[in-house]
TrEMBL record:
It comes from Planctopirus hydrillae. InterPro entries: DUF309 (IPR005500), TTHA0068_sf (IPR023203). It comes from the Bacteria. Residues 22-46 are annotated as: Disordered. SUPFAM superfamilies: TTHA0068-like. This is DUF309 domain-containing protein.
Amino acid sequence: MLDLSKQAPRLLPSTELPAYTFIPGSDAPHPYRDPRGHSYQKRHPPSRPLIPASWAENRNYLLAMDYFNYGYYWESHEEWERLWRVSTPDSLVGRFLKGLVKLAAAGVKVRENSIHGVRRHSASAGEIFADVAAEVDAEFFCGLEFTVLQFASDRAAQLGFREKVVGSTPVRIFPFVLVPEPMPLAG
């Protein structure tokens, strides 16, 4: 985990980040439905299921972490949700992804200025990570450390977010980033 003064390492540096992050209810165009959207009519390759033993080869998973670490919470939510849909939702991987989806949703709620939503999604993510960690009985899963995920979720739920973030410029609002171990080869 890095502090905010450090830049998060890009996991897929060859993939361009969008020009803005989508915030529901804002003036930003919807990425897929609006012709001005950053992903309008772009073909999205089908997601491959996330496999714990080969997580570092799953581009959707790595891209979602890049999005999250750079303040694209809606986009990371979408990527992790795509992976969740191609997983068995009640499997360990499915529940783990649901925790990541909830953590990203908390970031969206910060941008929507919904502190109740931030706390609800963060707390839910922390509970999911704790449950999956108990079943996995290991420190790491898909490259991420459960202790860090639970701390991140708890920390996000406790923050006040007094400063309103305006506009659709991506802003990392959480005092943590998700850095997998070992770091995958840059793609």
